[in-house]
């Protein structure tokens, strides 16, 4: 269980950071007509988000989360800063022994 939670925590932070980089890349692409960063960060974020989904579902199955809780954690990787908040909530609820 601890390994699955650690993997989730790492991926939540990695996906969160890359999502913020993606926002910067989008601003540069559309505001400054500099699309080079978007060509790199976009696919990398997509790949990392797919890994985040697999790791999150694995943790959800192990901790018997509700469908709603699982869906909210999965969506957290698509909204800037939300993956950081979700990671904190998951760690807090797991420490308390309360499923999402």
List key phrases describing it:
cell membrane; transmembrane helix; 4 helices; 0% strand; mainly alpha; elongated; 100 residues; transmembrane
Q: Structural class, from helix and strand content?
A: mainly alpha
**Structural domain count:** 1
Oligomeric composition of the shown chains: single chain
Residue stretches low in confidence (pLDDT < 50, at least 5 long) are none
Please tell me how large the radius of gyration is: 15 Å
How would you explain this protein's 3D organization?
This is Integral membrane protein. Keywords: Cell membrane, Membrane, Transmembrane, Transmembrane helix. The protein has 100 residues and is an all-alpha fold. It has one domain (1-94). It has four helices and no strands. It has helices spanning 2-31, 36-63, 67-75, 82-96. α1 packs antiparallel against α2 (36-63). The two termini are 15 Å apart. The mean pLDDT is 94.
Summarize the structure.
The chain has 100 residues and is an all-alpha fold. It has four helices and no strands.
Question: Which SSEs are present, and which pair or pack?
Answer:
Layout: H1 2-31, H2 36-63, H3 67-75, H4 82-96
Helix pairs in contact: 1-2, 1-4, 2-3
Domain DUF3817: 5-90
Subcellular location: Cell membrane
Membrane topology: Multi-pass membrane protein
